[in-house]
Amino acid sequence: MKSKTIDSFFKKKNTQNLDATPYNLEVNVENSSSQTEVPPSSSTPLTSEARPSKIPRIEPEEIDLLNLEHDPGLRKQIYDYPVNLRDEIQRAYIRDGPHQQSLVEYPTSGSEKNRRRFQATWYKDFWWLEYSPSKDAAFCFLCFLFNNKPTGRLGSTAFTYDGFNNWKKVNAGQDCAFLNHMGRTPSSAHNNAVKDYSNLKNQTQNIIASLDRQTKEQVAANRLRLKASIDVVRWLTFQGYAFRGHDESSSSKNHGNFLELLKLLESVI
Fold first, then answer.
1. What's the mean pLDDT when you consider all of the chain?
2. Which spans does this entry mark as compositional bias, Low complexity (predicted)?
3. Burial label, 120 (beta-carbon count in 10 A; 0-12, 13-18, 19+)
4. What is the pLDDT of residues 171-193, one digit of tens each?
5. Half-sphere exposure of residue 129, counting CA atoms within 13 Å on the CB side?
6. What is the CA radius of gyration of the chain?
7. Where are the beta strands (DSSP E) in the chain?
8. pLDDT for res 23
9. Where is average pLDDT lowest: 19-28, 34-43, 168-177?
10. 3-state SS string over 194-233?
11. SS3 252
């Protein structure tokens, strides 16, 4: 019996069939496109409807300080304005003062047997007092300026938002509604408003005085510069000298007769 060698277990691969059958690399584009559905791309651009809307831009509120509402019954409360505008609005109201409108005859209210009305003479005793023709009611100018949002306590908005018109309680001795509103202690809401009013008014006056002082100093300095320039022009003209130099740059050592004379006068003055 012929023994098998190790080579008999391995056969050489027939490469002729592989070489005889070439790979078909051509693709029928038309057939493939008609038979195969291309899935939608996840990167498809969004339409204007599907695109998320932009965050609206908040425009800053503009306030016409020269045309603020002064009727206490119609004007907007200070605490309803943006925080960054409140000081400016308070100063505008302080500049104009309380709304103390005097009428030939005020409307009457109360029972038929005891009709009462607002009296313009009350302005002299209570300088902070205001009158609203639209509500026929009295208001407090100071508490309007420095009042916080209503606390819900009964009567807390009588002189700031609702208005007071129970005229029979005015000039009623110790029970006078105006005196009760002012309070008996220095820490009352009204007296605190008085302090805030004084502080802001003094601050405003200091700012105005400072600006006025700076303006006067600036005007005087400008006049002096103008006078010096005119004098230099006259002198150079009479002497027949040239005004400008060959090099008037900042690095130049000689900027010409006109500028050099001005510098000389500034050093003397």
1. 80
2. 32-45
3. middle
4. 878 889 999 999 989 989 999 99
5. 23
6. 45
7. 108-109, 116-117, 129-132, 137-140
8. 47
9. 19-28
10. HHHHHHHHHHHHHHHHHHHHHHHHHHHHHHHHHHHHHHHH
11. coil
Q: Where are the alpha helices (DSSP H) in 76-188?
A: 83-96, 122-125, 141-146, 177-182
User: Comparing C-alpha atoms, which of 74, 63, 62, 82 is closest to residue 99?
Assistant: 74
Task: Say if residues 122 and 178 touch (Cβ distance below 8 Å).
Answer: yes
Phi and psi torsions of 140, nearest 5°: -105, 120
Phi first, then psi, for residue 130 (nearest 5°) are -130, 155
Report whether 79 contacts 147 (CB < 8 A).
yes
CA dihedral 245, 248, 254, 256 (to 10 degrees): 30
Q: Taking the domains of the chain in order of start, what are their residue ranges?
A: 65-182, 195-268
- Asked whether the beta carbons of 150 and 80 are under 8 A apart, the reply is no
- pTM for the full model? 0.56
